[in-house]
Amino acid sequence: MPPSPIARARAAVPPLPRIVFAVLALATLAIAARPAHADGDIVATVTDDHGAPVADAVVVAVPVDGVMKVVPHRDAVVDQVDREFTPKVIAVAVGTPIVFPNHDNVRHQVYSFSRAKRFELPLYAGVPAQPIVFDKPGVVVLGCNIHDWMIGYIYVSESPYFAKTGADGKATIAGLAPRDYVVRVWHLQQDGLEDATKKTVDLAKAKTVSVAWSLTLRPETRVRRSPVGESAGHY
Ligand SMILES: [Cu+2]
What we know:
It is a single chain. This protein is mainly beta and 235 residues long. It has three domains: 1-34; 37-68 and 162-235, Immunoglobulin-like (Sandwich), CATH 2.60.40.10; 69-158, Cupredoxins -  blue copper proteins (Immunoglobulin-like). Helices cover 11% and strands 37% of the residues. It has two helices and 17 strands. The chain has helices at 5-12, 15-33, and strands spanning 40-48, 58-63, 76-77, 79-81, 84-86, 89-93, 96-99, 110-114, 117-120, 132-134, 138-144, 151-157, 161-164, 170-176, 180-186, 199-202, 208-215. The protein is globular and about 55 Å long. The N and C termini lie far apart (102 Å). The relative contact order is 0.23. The chain binds copper (II) ion. The site of copper (II) ion has 6 residues, from loops.
């Protein structure tokens, strides 16, 4: 019986291209199966002049190529507890809405005159209905018109890659694609410009890169608290 037209067509394809095709297909699969990028970490250590760990420093990494997708955070909160902002320092990505619940039995009037965000929440108790959206990068200093000693800081980052140091002075920015980054550090008592702390790190060569800063800190100027309970119930 003569071979069917299909069988003849199959036979017409030489075996070598078929093997080449199979190898190429396998190679493509292998590349696809490999993670698009082995994510890396930047481990930052911040100390003061005396080598003591510095907490509440914000470390920011910006890809050198400038390509990044900023996703605003959800559920960001700056609480008011015992007539202090809690946390005192928060870092968020630009565009993040923050709510300012009041957990005290006195009313607060939260405001900022900072260029990155001017706002005022009229005297209130409980949770304000609307969050404030922090839509410009920069440092926003918070105050309360009733309690002069209350001060808080919102670091609004233009990059989605940032972390705040803990009590050990360490912060890890995890899950970074392997490329070059400019890293910098900000602290509320920093003597000197944040821009002067810039360093370039290359995550293409190593999966984990350590970076360290020694900061000169100015003493923190704070208004003294009124004795506890003095104004309780008045506002
Ligand atoms: Cu207050």
